[in-house]
Amino acid sequence: GKHHQAYVDNLNKAVDADPALRGKSMEEMFATMSTLPKAVRNNAGGHWNHSLFWKLMAPSGKTGRPSPELAAAIDRDLGGMDKFKEAFNAAGAGQFGSGWA
């Protein structure tokens, strides 16, 4: 979607601005990621994480609802699904790369 595409577009701009990065694979960049500019780190990480996320979505035929065991743990430990969603959304809103929430 547009959110993921923004990571790709911004990563491409950051790579184009640094001749040393042009032509490098994601794997090559990740090998030295901590030394690269913030725009590369954030956008490469965002692109990589979103690409992985789409592959990890619920398998075909699954409902997207938590298993009975997970639902019971959410109720027991987190006060129910609604409270969990509120806390999760708040954590994501306060974190760059909200997927880390």
Task: Describe the protein.
This protein has 101 residues and is mainly α. It has 2 domains: 1-57, Fe,Mn superoxide dismutase (SOD) domain (Helix Hairpins); 62-101, no CATH class. The protein contains 5 helices and no strands. It has helices spanning 2-16, 26-31, 38-56, 68-78, 81-93. The two termini are 20 Å apart. The mean pLDDT is 87.
Q: Using the coordinates shown, work out and report the CATH topology of the largest domain.
A: Helix Hairpins
CATH superfamily of the largest domain: Fe,Mn superoxide dismutase (SOD) domain
How do the SSEs run, as a string of H and E?
HHHHH
What is the distance, rounded to the nearest whole angstrom, between the alpha carbons of the first and last residues? 20 Å
Reported for the largest beta sheet, the result is:
none
- The shape is elongated
% residues in beta strands: under 5%
Poorly predicted ranges (pLDDT <50, ≥5 residues)?
A: none
Helix content: 55-70%
Radius of gyration: 18 Å
Number of domains: 2
The CATH class label of the largest domain is: Mainly Alpha
Beta strands, count: 0
Mean pLDDT: 87
- Identify the CATH architecture of the largest domain: Orthogonal Bundle
- Give the structural class: mainly alpha
Short description:
The protein has 101 residues and is an all-alpha fold. The protein contains five helices and no strands. It has two domains: 1-57, Helix Hairpins (Orthogonal Bundle); 62-101, no CATH class.
